[in-house]
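Q: Sequence in, structure out?
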Amino acid sequence: MIAVVQRVAESSVAVDGDVVGSISSGLMVLLGVAKDDDEKDADYLAEKIANLRIFEDLKGKMNNSLIDISGEMLIISQFTLLGDCRKGRRPSFINAAGHELANSLYEYFIEKVSQKGIKTQKGVFGAMMDVSLVNSGPVTLIVESKQA
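A: Exactly. Output:
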C-alpha cells in the first residue's frame, strides 16, 4: 500500500458537486492498494500514519501526532498512486489491486484508523471525485507499507 499524506487546515471531497466528506485540522490521505497487499499492510499504514509526529507542539517542533491533537482524517482511494511511469508515456497500472481487493482493504484501513479514536471521513470508492484542501505547512509525505 502507498499513501500520500498531507497535513491540512481543512479538506473536502465531492462527487457530482455534492460534498461527501470533509474535515478541519488533520490529515488528508490518498490511499493506493497494490495487488499483493493484505490486511498487514493496512494495519502498518494505519498505525504509522495515525502516529506520525508531524504536528507542532507548543515550542513549534513537529512532535505531535494526529492522535495527540485530536485531529481528523479524510481518506480517499486513489489507484493511480500505483501507476508506473518509468517506461513509455502511459502509466502502467499492472501492480494496482483489482476492484474487490482494493475496496476491501480501503474500507479495512478506514476501520483501523477509526478504532484509534480518530474521526474519519472518506470519498466514494471508484468514483470521479473533486478533492479540495488547504495544505498546512506545507507538509506532504509518502508512506509505503513495503520496502522498495
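The beta strands are 2-15, 18-23, 26-32, 55-56, 62-64, 72-77, 119-122, 130-144.
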